[in-house]
Design a protein that fits this description.
Length: 581
């Protein structure tokens, strides 16, 4: 006799019933090996929200007598991933959890429903393919960066010796920059494609869910439970659904006069899973359950002989030159930040949470549990804001001006993440006091990590630059040399009414030939002594002044900053054109 048969032999009573009754009043089943089926009412207790997925936990409670039971959870959404079903019971032994789909004959197999099913399958295959493409592009980017680091070391070691081939280095710099731009462009395109595919799939699932309800289709989970004692049993059913997502959004409010910055960390939630969330315990996870399980392939490493011919910009660098010879070229690889779209605050919750989210997890993923119950309709259109945390941190405010390339002085705030929260990459709305400045992409920051926030150009600070004079002079003992002398001036005006810090950036020529010398003289103010600037940028010809600028008097044109650049060579040496301003 099996264990299950023994359990059923001693069962007190189980039968089908129309309404719940006390356990002692339910009669025994007529067959000892057949489960008694009961539909159990349930509500959504909690939601763990990922990017594009959500883990739902439903809870239902019922009174049961000893026996063999099939507890049926009806009304599950069409977006459910059936293979993820799990169940836990407060009493008894769970033998299996099965997924069923029952149809009402008159509308279950309509052509529209079948067509939508096919479109959903195709859409999910497309999403999986795009995710694999993104993983491959990220791996390619890491490979290019690794090549650049190795090659930079090689080039630095050869500096000042006959081994350093400047033409080859220049070509390699062009190749690295080209590969970066290509990969960044393809990655941005793939990410945009993935977002569009996910939204399209969510819309299809929402349509199919609504069609299933009107046509009489019913998704259910059946939990087989063996019970040896009369019990009030609580069953928790969990599963994954598609059509739900969240993204971090930030509001950053600067108070330059007080030297403080207030950061609000929120989550923007939207879902179209097919079932509404009402008063659920919401947790936001940084994990990605849909991430591909297979890593990208390791690619071959080729070494070739260096072609010392200087290629034109239109020519493509041979791939074999990427590994042994390249240098990091940061200034050329910079790209403008992508402008983020302002968040519609009308969709935000109408309350301010008095408590911060609770952090759980470690390693590559973190979960934030929101303090208050959360509601979200299943329409894939309503964006709800959930507060994770807020903090205020002391901030160093500095204006940054680069009049050689752009007008205006841009306010920058430098601070540390003083919260216990990992600030993920997302969009930030920035304010100066009560004034909205705009939106910017935010790269994220770990706890205690420093980061910068830019608040746009301040019209109260003006920076103008001019080439005062340029002339060529004969030089040398017998006049065989030629000096091209350029005199520059920058005027800084400060109408803020207070002293400000200003980081002024400009540039001078950098000689790439032993036949040409460049000298800097006539500095009205000394250059910055910042160690990072001295180690990284000064050798590239970048000029930086760290200034304290008092308020400009009405009779003054502003604080003057002047310097002179002299390019010296023999008269028979022709140099590349000097800047005309």
């Amino acid at each position: 006799m099996t264990t299950l048969t023994r359990i059923l032999a001693v069962a007190a009573a189980v039968v089908h019933y129309a309404t719940p009754a006390p356990a002692a009043q339910v009669p025994a089943p007529t067959r000892g090996d057949a489960p008694v089926e009961r539909a159990i009412g349930s509500t959504i207790e909690s939601v763990v929200l990922y990017q594009g997925r959500a883990a739902i936990t439903r809870v239902g409670t019922t009174d049961l007598t000893p026996g063999f039971w099939k507890l049926r959870f009806d009304g599950l959404p069409g977006s459910i991933e059936a293979e993820t079903l799990e169940a836990k019971a407060s009493a008894g032994a769970i033998l299996s959890v099965d997924y069923t789909r029952r149809e009402v004959p008159e509308g279950s197999s309509s052509p529209e429903a079948l067509a939508l099913d096919g479109e959903i399958r195709t859409a999910r295959l497309g999403i999986a393919a795009t995710e694999a493409t993104i993983a491959g592009l990220v791996a390619d980017g890491k490979f290019v960066e690794a090549v650049g680091i190795r090659a930079s070391t090689d080039a630095a070691a050869a500096g000042g010796t006959a081994k350093l081939d400047l033409a080859a280095v220049d070509a390699q710099m062009l190749w690295i920059a080209t590969q970066r731009r290509r990969l960044q462009g393809e990655l941005a395109s793939a990410q945009a494609q993935l977002t569009a595919q996910q939204q399209a799939a969510e819309t299809l699932v929402s349509k199919r869910t609504a069609l299933g309800a009107t046509s009489g289709s019913m998704q259910s989970a059946e939990v087989l439970l063996a019970l040896t004692e009369p019990e009030t049993v609580t069953v928790r059913l969990s599963y994954l659904v598609t059509g739900a997502r969240w993204e971090p959004v930030y509001s950053m409010r600067a108070s330059p006069e007080q030297g403080m910055l207030n950061v609000e960390i929120d989550a923007m939630v939207v879902q179209g899973s097919g079932e509404p969330w009402e008063g659920v315990r919401l947790s936001l996870s940084t994990a990605r359950p849909s991430r591909a399980a297979r890593p990208p392939e390791v690619r071959p490493w080729f070494v070739d002989v260096v072609d010392t011919r200087r290629p034109s910009p239109a020519e493509k660098m041979p791939s074999g030159m990427a590994t042994g010879f390249a240098v990091r070229e940061e200034s050329r690889a910079r790209e403008a930040d992508k402008a983020g779209e302002p968040i519609d605050r009308a969709a935000a919750l109408g309350e301010t949470l008095s408590r911060e989210a609770v952090i759980a997890g470690s390693g590559p993923s973190v979960t934030y549990t929101i303090a208050l119950p959360f509601d979200a309709p299943s329409d894939n259109q309503t964006f709800r804001r959930a507060r994770i945390a807020a903090f205020t941190a002391p901030t160093r405010f500095v204006y940054q001006a680069q009049p050689a390339v752009t007008e205006g002085a841009f306010l920058r705030g430098s601070l540390a993440n003083t919260s216990a929260f990992q600030m993920l990459p997302g969009k930030a709305s920035v304010f100066v006091n009560a004034d909205y400045v705009g939106a910017m992409p935010f790269d994220g920051a770990a706890p205690k990590e420093s980061f910068d926030v830019y608040f746009g150009a301040d019209p109260a600070v003006t920076v103008t630059r001019e080439l005062i004079k340029r002339e060529d002079k004969a030089s040398g003992l017998f006049g065989g040399g030629l000096d091209s002398e350029s005199n520059y001036r920058v005027l800084v005006g400060n109408a803020t009414g207070r002293e400000i810090r200003l980081e002024l950036l400009d540039f001078r020529p950098v000689s790439r030939s032993s036949k040409v010398e460049v000298a800097l003289s006539g500095l009205a103010s000394p250059l910055s002594d910042d160690p990072e600037y001295l180690a990284r940028d000064q050798a590239k010809g970048i000029l930086r002044w760290d200034l304290r600028v008092p308020p400009t008097a009405p009779s003054s044109d502003g604080l003057p900053i002047t310097w002179t650049v002299t390019v010296s060579r023999s008269k028979d040496v022709e140099v590349t054109p000097l800047p005309d301003r």
